[in-house]
Design a protein that fits this description.
Helices cover 89% and strands 0% of the residues. The chain is mostly helical and 245 residues long.
């Protein structure tokens, strides 16, 4: 679109230049013919004046009139030629101006496009960081669920009633020792699983905060890149509109 818009005015400029040159050629040819005609009239008048002295006065008047007419015609054609040459010069100035504008536009557009591309690269990095953070957050939550739903943490005290029933052959002392050992083992396992559950749960909030920051950075980057894209499109459209005009 830009190329066709640029080539059109340039083609018209070259047409105008060629047309002006062809217009100037007949002008030069006309001046030469008139000058030749004036010399011929002057030569005839001079010869007649030599042969017939009485005609010299009339010849002088005729020559003055002819010279005045030619002078006026030359002035008019000279002014017209100057106008044509001025128009040609303006066409060249416009052409050079358009050429420099194209060069300036290309440079500025390249800078705008590179800025937008660079922003999209940073946006991709921010997106990956946010995605990885959320993936880790999901894993942390899943780990907390697994650790906090172990049997040692979810069992009811009533589930242990059957363990407390002594056998007929078992004396009190032996039963107490068995209960002490049984509950010590179960308490140790419960304490270990409880601490693991608490540790896993404490990792969720910091990870959520980190992911929130990364998501905010990603959103800001998306807006930044959107503005960069708007700048590229606005610059291109405004320049193309002005160039076409």
């Amino acid at each position: 679109l830009f190329l066709s818009t640029w080539v059109g005015p340039l083609r018209e400029t070259m047409k105008s230049l060629i047309f002006s040159v062809f217009l100037a050629l007949p002008c030069a040819e006309g001046l030469a013919l008139r000058h030749s005609g004036a010399l011929h009239v002057a030569e005839v008048s001079r010869a007649r004046c030599v042969e017939i002295p009485e005609s010299c006065a009339d010849g002088v008047d005729q020559m003055l009139e002819t010279a005045s007419t030619i002078k006026e015609q030359v002035r008019e054609e000279l002014n017209a030629t100057r106008a044509r040459l001025h128009s040609i010069a303006l066409d060249f100035v416009r052409c050079n101006t358009l050429t420099s504008q194209v060069s300036s536009y290309t440079s500025k557009f390249r800078a705008e496009a590179e800025s937008h591309t660079s922003c999209r690269v940073r946006q991709k990095a921010d997106f990956d960081a946010s995605k990885n953070c959320n993936t880790l957050l999901t894993a942390v939550k899943a780990n907390r669920t697994i650790l906090c739903e172990r049997e040692s943490l979810t069992s009811s005290p009533n589930d242990l009633v059957s363990l407390c029933k002594p056998t007929r052959e078992e004396g009190l002392g032996m039963w107490l020792e068995d209960m002490t050992q049984t509950f010590l083992v179960r308490h140790t396992q419960w304490k270990k699983d409880h601490d693991a559950c608490q540790t896993a749960g404490s990792m969720i909030a910091p990870q959520e905060a980190l992911c929130s920051v990364k998501e905010g950075t990603l959103n800001e980057r998306a807006q930044e890149c959107g503005r960069a894209l708007d700048s590229v499109e606005s610059f291109s459209c405004s320049w193309a509109t002005g160039f076409a005009a």
